[in-house]
Amino acid sequence: MRLMVFFDLPTTSKAHKRAYTQFRKFLIKDGYDMLQWSVYARIVNGTDDAKTHLKRLVSHLPKEGSVRCLQVSEKQFTAMKILVGEKTYQEKQVNGSQFLLF
């Protein structure tokens, strides 16, 4: 299962830029990989893990801007079509067939 985060944050002032940087650094530290500008995704182990990471995400939200989160299955994520460009390094390294189920 994957959590995808889409965001559009203002960067017009120094405070806005700082909030953007802090949020982006949180995403990276929490295990999210950048798919493209302002779109990050991370692998989660089921619904309970997704809820845990969603709570962490909510606790680190900036005060302004737009942030959205989408939970998709691994099958849905791997069915995503890339119309222009290439898979990211992380997408090339880890695919749906490499997961272990416990």
Walk me through what this model shows.
A four-stranded antiparallel β-sheet has the order 2-3-1-4. 39% of the residues lie in helices and 23% in strands. The chain has 102 residues and is α+β, with helices and mostly antiparallel strands. The two termini are 14 Å apart. The model has no long low-confidence stretch (mean pLDDT 89).
Listing every helix as H and every strand as E from the N terminus to the C terminus, the arrangement reads: EHEEHEHH
Mean pLDDT across the residues is: 89
N-C termini distance? 14 Å
* Total beta strands: 4
Radius of gyration: 14 Å
Q: Kindly state the percentage of residues in helix.
A: 25-40%
Structural class, please?
alpha+beta
| Global outline | globular
Largest sheet: 4 strands, antiparallel
How many helical stretches? Answer: 4
Strand content: 15-25%
Low-confidence runs (pLDDT<50, min 5 residues)?
Answer: none
Strand order of the largest sheet: 2-3-1-4
